[in-house]
């Protein structure tokens, strides 16, 4: 089954529909410059309302390791996603502070970017850019057989085709389930339903 991650969650209304459709993961964005930024306190409140079957992922960009450790220790997040240019030393230090899975996000713009995938993390995420909402050139993934989360430009219009072509471990969507910058309950339901339809058709 293709794992489903709904990212950029910010409101109690979002959580209500998420608890209804039960994706595998949701994402809280703690990067200050993001329009989907959420405070620690708000994330804690939403996590308390989240169905226990759904894992909360914290998304960070070159953040202070102590901030990440705080969120893990207080059970506000269950998984860490690194979306900056955190190096091996940073990751190793982080691992001494936390004992939850780490996802490392790579921006894929060329074959060289594929070849540079070398971080020692539990999962990798392949994105066309940092939340740019664009899909990347699928030809770049020819011969790439690692498990990965697919992100960038996914929507109800293309998700079935992407899964059937690329067979990712999981899919990660944010802007594709929004209308005018806010999460759209109908799009969330539709997106999750389409992913599961593909899995059922296989």
UniProtKB/TrEMBL annotation:
Pathway: Amino-acid biosynthesis; L-tryptophan biosynthesis; L-tryptophan from chorismate: step 3/5
Domain of life: Bacteria
Cross-referenced CDD domains: PRAI
Ranges for domain N-(5'phosphoribosyl) anthranilate isomerase (PRAI): 5-192
One MF annotation (Gene Ontology) recorded for this entry: phosphoribosylanthranilate isomerase activity
Enzyme Commission designation: 5.3.1.24
One Pfam family named in its UniProt record: PRAI
Sequence intervals crossing the membrane: none
GO BP annotations listed: L-tryptophan biosynthetic process
Keywords: Amino-acid biosynthesis, Aromatic amino acid biosynthesis, Isomerase, Tryptophan biosynthesis
Reactions catalysed: N-(5-phospho-beta-D-ribosyl)anthranilate = 1-(2-carboxyphenylamino)-1-deoxy-D-ribulose 5-phosphate
Keyword Isomerase among record annotations: yes
Enzyme class: isomerase
UniProt record similarity statement: Belongs to the TrpF family.
Protein name in the entry: N-(5'-phosphoribosyl)anthranilate isomerase
Lineage start: Bacteria, Bacillati, Bacillota, Clostridia, Lachnospirales
Gene assigned in the entry: trpF
